[in-house]
Every structure is written in structure tokens, then in C-alpha cells.
């Protein structure tokens, strides 16, 4: 599953879990993009990679690949799939994508060659039509997944204006965002969103200031999570 993951949220995780079950996958590899195509990334690849590691650590079937963040230049899925293929020459590869992303797929780089490298699974997403016309049925499967109206844009915007992101993203990711002061600057805010309490860049933001009773216990995770946090 490729994505900017800025930050990774439960919409990504539920989609991956559903596809994994429905298609009887052995592993789901989350691949954070390097420099995403036509998208302004506000957070470094390393932060996005580590948040993805934290979010997936409790599921032994979930792994995270650095192939895109370690490759220079714009990330294209053709390169992602070639790299993953060279690491796993005998695997049947599936590429998981959401309804919004798959709507653009016919414009992706070398799209005809993409079909040879993987089978694509497009999942439903609130606010986006999954019945995209023109997609080759033999190459792209469509799957309805539980509807979670969560987006990374909204998560960044919420942090920027001091609203909680608990339960939208995994607990460890909330803690990582707070500890590393992510998404506090003006560039992270969605100017169309209602501003509840404007915060200045210097002002502490409330993700770290939830009432003690609202603070969940430390997330389940492996040693690598406590090391990187
Ligand atoms: N809530 C969701 N339900 C289903 N699929 C999703 C959901 N959120 C994201 N996806 C899919 O996951 C992949 C990675 O998404 P991405 O990292 O760009 O997150 P995003 O929430 O769309 O981010 P942003 O708001 O910054 O555009 C894309 O294929 C996207 O369509
Ligand atoms: O290959 C392309 O031309 C291409 C163009 C746009 C997006 N993608 C991939 O689609 C995935 C989801 O992208 P995004 O921007 O929604 O996070 C991610 O893995 C991107 O690298 C790929």
C-alpha cells in the first residue's frame, strides 16, 4: 500500500486489513512515498516512515518499506513496484489504493506496464466514487471497506488548530506527532477548516495537553517502537 502517510491514520490501516483478509495476503507492505507526485509534503520522509512503523508495529503481517523514501526524485508507482519485485521475485504483488487515488491511475507513469507488475485493489472511501470508468476489470479489483471519513489533511489541520487526533490515528502516532512538534506551522493548516482556537507557531499545541483521564495507555508495540519514539 503506497501513500504519503502524512500522517498515517486508521483509514489506511482498516483498508489494508480488509484487503489483506479478502485477498488472503501473507503480508501488507506499507510504502511511504519519497517526494509524492503533484503533492506538497509538509513532513520529512523519515518522520512519515517512522510514524508508519509505529502504526503498524502491533500487526506482524504489516511491514514498512523504505524503497520510495530512499530513492531520489519524484515517487512513481512503476519504480515502487519494480523495487518491491526485485526484493520478492516470487511474490504475487497487489497494490492497494483508495477510490480517490485510483480515479487518477490512468494518468500514472507507464500505466500499461503497471498492470504487468501487480494486481490493483481499489478500496472505497467516503466522498469518493469507486466506480471509475475506463479501468480494466481484469487488472483492478474494487472492494468496499468500512467507511472511515479520515484524511491526513484533516489530521494535520486538527493538530494545527489544537484539536485532538486521538482515535483518528494510532496512539503511538499521536505521541510521535506531539513529541516531534509536527503539523504546528501555518502550512499544515487547512484554511477552509473552522478555526476553533487559533494557535501561534510558538504556542504549545493541545495534542500533548489532553486531560490526564483522556490519555490512553502506552500503545502496544515492539521494542523498535520505544526505541524510535
Ligand atoms: N479514509 C480512507 N479510506 C480509504 N482509503 C483511504 C483513506 N485515506 C486514504 N486512503 C487511501 O490511502 C492511500 C494513501 O493515502 P494518503 O497517504 O494520501 O492519505 P490521505 O488521507 O488521502 O492524505 P491527504 O489528505 O494528505 O491527501 C491512497 O490510495 C488513499 O486513497
Ligand atoms: O506513478 C504515478 O504516476 C503516481 C501518481 C500519483 C500517485 N501515485 C501513488 O499513489 C499512492 C497514493 O498517493 P497519495 O498521493 O494519495 O498518497 C502513492 O503510492 C503514490 O506514489 C503514483
TrEMBL record:
Recorded name of the encoding gene: nadD
Low complexity composition-biased segments: 206-220
Region (Disordered): 187-229
Reactions catalysed according to its record: nicotinate beta-D-ribonucleotide + ATP + H(+) = deamido-NAD(+) + diphosphate
PANTHER family with a match to the protein in the record: NICOTINATE-NUCLEOTIDE ADENYLYLTRANSFERASE-RELATED, PHOSPHOPANTETHEINE ADENYLYLTRANSFERASE
GO terms for MF: nucleotidyltransferase activity
Pfam families: CTP_transf_like
Task performed by this protein: Catalyzes the reversible adenylation of nicotinate mononucleotide (NaMN) to nicotinic acid adenine dinucleotide (NaAD).
InterPro entries, per the entry: Cyt_trans-like, NadD/NMNAT, Rossmann-like_a/b/a_fold
Family statement drawn from the similarity comment of this UniProt entry: Belongs to the NadD family.
Top EC class for this record: transferase
Pathway annotation from the record: Cofactor biosynthesis; NAD(+) biosynthesis; deamido-NAD(+) from nicotinate D-ribonucleotide: step 1/1
Organism, scientific name: Frondihabitans peucedani
Record NCBIfam families: cyt_tran_rel, nicotinate (nicotinamide) nucleotide adenylyltransferase, PRK00071.1-3
Full protein name: Probable nicotinate-nucleotide adenylyltransferase
EC number: 2.7.7.18
Domain Cytidyltransferase-like: 1-158
Keywords, ordered alphabetically: ATP-binding, NAD, Nucleotide-binding, Nucleotidyltransferase, Pyridine nucleotide biosynthesis, Transferase
